[in-house]
Fold Actin maturation protease.
Amino acid sequence: MTPTISAVLENRVSCVLDKFSTEEHRCGAIAFLRNVKPLLQNGPQCGLVALQMAASSLGLPMIGIEQIHRLAKEKGFTNRGEMFSVEWLNELALAIWPTLQGTIRDMPTAEELSELLKNECAVLVPYDCDKNNEPVIRNGNTAHWCIVVGYLCCDLNESELVWSKQKPTCFDNMYVFCLHGKSRHFALWKYADLFESNANLNEIGEKRRTDGEIYILPCEGFAALKRKCLILHL
């Protein structure tokens, strides 16, 4: 079933397909997009807002961000809303929505990710965020959270864009639809870029260390984020 997408996202999809098209052949793709409502953050609450979007996408009751923040603070997981541990985010999710099932795991392969999304899982990923919110390599200095909500697998053997749960035959050029708390628009990023950005989360960075704010870090530091993601499902 073809989802209803905005003109902004339609243009982003078209731009990606143009990269792989030639004058003789228009590149096609197999695409899938979950129905998830975007939510915006207020301050450094990206992980909490990603969790809020994940729960909403699974049909769970909407809990206000203030309540989520308060509980996270009571548990000693955050101060201003920051979330520097996948395990803490999972524990917070299960405390708020007891019917949830959570799995902390290494970042999935492209094929594994497609199966998770088709099985209605919410996939929450920490990554380094560039000024345009795209994944970047900054050693963890601009760590941010997103929720992966779909994929676009470009395939030169396809001649049109097909929205379907059918298994893509090629994962070499997989792009992912993502939401995060800094924009109401669906992002479309190369999955390899998100994967690599997640793998370079090493430290909080000089800016956060010297901005006068107090951040809560787990004892293992950014190892609590690096190469990890959170899978939530019912």
Remarks:
- The radius of gyration is 18 Å.
- The helical segments are 7-20, 46-57, 65-74, 86-96, 110-118, 191-199, 206-209.
